[in-house]
Amino acid sequence: MPGELCVGLACSPRRDGNTTLLLESAAEILRSGSVETEIYRLADIDFSPCMACEGCSATGRCVIDDGAMHLYDRILKAEIVIMAAPVFSMGICAHAKMFIDRAQQFWASKYLLNRQVVEDGHLRRSRRGIFISCAGTRIDGVFEGTVRVARYFFKMLDIRLAGAYCYPGVDGRGDILSHKAALDEIRDASIKLSPDVKK
Ligand SMILES: Cc1cc2nc3c(=O)[nH]c(=O)nc-3n(C[C@H](O)[C@H](O)[C@H](O)COP(=O)(O)O)c2cc1C
């Protein structure tokens, strides 16, 4: 039986930023269990925001043929999806939001056209993922907006969200590397994502 595919979305524009480092640590664990893992940095992908043209309402497919479409095609083939996105201005960072808005095509497909997001029954049952975030402050509710949007993203794609892992008070680039509890938690979450990963 072929191994599983994981797609990781590095949504922060900061190279080697905290959320990307956590995503990479998750990828390392998954690869050790022979899960093919692809990481995409949204800032390197050429894509447009949703234009609200309503083209997808009729077809279930976005009319804009760009990097976001290629990435959604990979996501539809994946059993595991990990989104890593920081809090910017009390919400999810702009690259993540722009990409999530392009998932409106799956909302249209499900709720307007009564179609399955993925036809393959095996994929439909097993799709799962986690969300990872960091914020510089420890303000009450700092992750509220971000997690809400992320939950909606997974729901639009019919992917079971196994957990949202959010770390406040992490600001400088790479500061997360000295946050042992976060690294351990992401390690455990990654192990749980794939039955092939050895503990
Ligand atoms: C444009 C911008 C806006 C930010 N807004 C917030 C904010 O509203 N609240 C907060 O706690 N941290 C905020 N931060 C801090 C980031 O959440 C923090 O640095 C985080 O570790 C970044 O993760 P990254 O390294 O993966 O990009 C902001 C950072 C930037 C660059």
Detailed description of the structure:
With 199 residues, the protein is α/β, with parallel strands linked by helices. The chain has a single domain, classed as Flavodoxin domain (Rossmann fold, 3-Layer(aba) Sandwich), CATH 3.40.50. Helix content is 41%, strand content 18%. The protein has helices at 18-32, 55-59, 67-77, 94-101, 104-112, 121-126, 144-156, 180-193, and strands spanning 5-10, 36-41, 80-84, 87-88, 91-92, 128-134, 160-167. A five-stranded parallel beta sheet has the order 2-1-3-6-7, sandwiched between helices. The chain has a two-stranded antiparallel sheet with strand order 4-5. A hairpin with a 2-residue loop joins strand 4 and strand 5 (91-92). Helix 1 packs across helix 8 (180-193). The longest helix has 15 residues, at 18-32. It binds flavin mononucleotide. Residues 12, 14, 17-20, 86-90, 134-137, 142, 170-171, 173 line the site of flavin mononucleotide.
Bound small molecules, which ones?
flavin mononucleotide
Mean pLDDT: 95
How does the helix and strand content classify structurally?
alpha/beta
Q: How many β-strand stretches?
A: 7
CATH C-level class is Alpha Beta
